[in-house]
Protein: Stage V sporulation protein AB
Amino acid sequence: MWIQQIVLGILGLSAGIIVAGGLFSFIIELGILADFADRTHTGDHVLLYEDAAALGGAVGNLVFIYQIPLPGGGQLLAVFGLLAGIFTGCWAMALAEVLNVFPVFIRRINLAKCVSWAILGMAIGKGLGAFVFFWNQWGS
Structure:
């Protein structure tokens, strides 16, 4: 019985690493990390950023697959939620930038004068949604 659990654990970990590797390869290929390094004028550390992204994916897999308890409870969960939201927002914006979706959309609906307000509204809505979600999670 324990041999079956070991094999399933190895298979799950291997599959997770493959999926995470594919995702982070896609992120690196799109140039998201290089773009962030360029905007922050830290381009000489791009390889470090790429290694950190890949290591984060691998460690995240280990924690998820093996249900490793992390200290910090709700406070750590809130920090993780914030960072995951930032990551998701950056991912969405990078994909939209690559596809040039926003310039076309903004021209079509004549939103050029209110772009900053629209982005601020989306950010506030995402923040409030996350706050309500985590508030409900802590309450139950």
Remarks:
- The chain has six helices and no strands.
- The radius of gyration is 19 Å.
- Residues 1-68 form one domain.
- The CA atoms of residues 18 and 58 lie 9 Å apart.
